Automatic annotation (TrEMBL):
PANTHER family: ZINC FINGER HIT DOMAIN CONTAINING PROTEIN 2 PROTEIN FON -RELATED, ZINC FINGER HIT DOMAIN-CONTAINING PROTEIN 2. InterPro entries: Znf_HIT, ZNHIT2. Keywords: Metal-binding, Zinc, Zinc-finger. It comes from Danaus chrysippus. This is (African queen) hypothetical protein. Residues 13-46 form the HIT-type domain. It comes from the Eukaryota. The keyword Zinc-finger applies. GO terms for molecular function: zinc ion binding.
Length: 366
């Protein structure tokens, strides 16, 4: 057999074994003649592994649910196939390199960046990635890739005629709650009998807390979430007293709608109403104040940490916003109103008062 005949056989498509090959797979180095052969059943394991490795590198440092992972895989497949269809005629076999795919080295591009700096992250993206992000943002699809935060107050032990005690499930649910803080006894804080409106005022605060926690998807920037809570909570902001629980909760809904800093809808407000009911109801009938105490304990931690941050970091005006900040000003927190430390201190004292009151009510039922 001549060398020319041997070369011709070697360059036949290794997948259909009929046509002359034009390209070379960068993974398994098989020669092939067309996109159909590359995507054929015979080459499926290699091509699927290519997609899987792309996605695994992207997801290595993130925790997302299966639905989000599958969606990302589909996006990568579509992007890869569309790019392949457009450019396949212009690709030389020796130049095919899986490392050239921008999705593969995204993790490498951002691994040394400050992930809290949106402008640095934006500059690390390719033009295609920026365009895809803007398209997803305009269509409201970005949220589908972000894991939905699960509140800690969702568990409720149902009361049954014949009760089967599942202590492990209830214990696990309570362990997810914020740690209840120790506060002075209520009798040491005041000798005056509190007004009956105190319970309705606490409902107003709990409704604001529940809304804000959902609004930030459980990701707490202490100063930011304090701003949102004060924006919608009339009792903490202006010492408003309520004579009815329903009015106290609806006040939060109205403040959300009127706020220039908050973008919400009726569905989210209905979730807030239901969350407030769950917190006030508690994990069980015999432990009905536990969630309320956990919520006020968490609020104390949030406002205390915000006060500490405000002392350490004096606000600085950023006159040189980067490309991302200029392009997406709604993602910046600079538009939020400032809170002075004296206001924070008063709120902390008020939260301690409410938590001490709850502890005194709990002691009366024991």
């Amino acid at each position: 057999m001549s060398s020319q005949q041997s070369e011709r056989i070697d360059r036949l498509c290794g997948l259909c074994e009929k046509n002359s090959s034009k390209y070379c797979c960068p993974r398994c180095e098989v020669f092939y003649c067309s996109l159909d052969c590359y995507k054929s059943e015979k080459h499926l394991e290699c091509s699927e592994n290519f997609y899987r490795e792309c996605v695994n590198q992207e997801l290595a440092s993130n925790t997302v649910d299966d639905e989000a992972k599958n969606k990302m895989i589909d996006i990568l497949k579509r992007m890869h196939n569309e790019s392949f269809d457009d450019d396949i005629e212009n690709i030389e076999p020796v130049e095919i390199d899986s490392d050239d795919d921008s999705e593969i080295d995204l993790h490498t591009r951002i691994k040394d960046l400050n992930l809290d700096d949106p402008d640095a992250l934006w500059n690390a993206l390719t033009s295609d990635e920026k365009n895809e992000f803007e398209a997803m943002l305009s269509q409201g699809d970005v949220g589908t890739l972000i894991p939905q935060w699960q509140p800690w107050w969702l568990f409720r032990k149902e009361k049954k005629l014949v009760e089967e005690v599942d202590l492990s499930r209830e214990k696990e649910a309570l362990e997810r709650c914020p740690t209840i803080k120790a506060v002075p006894k209520f009798s040491t804080l005041t000798s005056i009998q509190p007004s009956p409106s105190i319970r309705f005022n606490m409902a107003n605060i709990i409704a604001a807390y529940a809304f804000a926690m959902r609004y930030v998807n459980g990701e707490i920037d202490h100063k930011e979430i304090c701003t949102y809570i004060l924006e919608v909570c009339s009792n903490l902001k202006t010492n408003t007293n309520f004579e009815d629980a329903e009015l106290a909760i609806e006040s939060v809904a109205q403040m959300c709608i009127q706020s220039e800093y908050i973008d919400t809808d009726e569905a989210s407000l209905n979730v807030m109403r239901h969350d407030t009911f769950l917190i006030l109801q508690g994990p069980s009938e015999e432990n009905h104040l536990y969630y309320s105490k956990a919520a006020f304990s968490h609020l104390l931690d949030i406002f205390t940490e915000a006060k500490t941050q405000m002392r350490k970091n004096k606000p600085k005006e950023n006159k040189n916003n980067g490309n991302f900040s200029r392009k997406f000003p709604q993602c910046s927190k600079s538009h939020l109103p400032d809170i002075d430390t004296s206001t924070i201190k008063k709120i902390i004292k008020k939260l301690e008062y409410y938590l001490a009151f709850l502890e005194s009510c709990d002691n009366k039922t024991e």
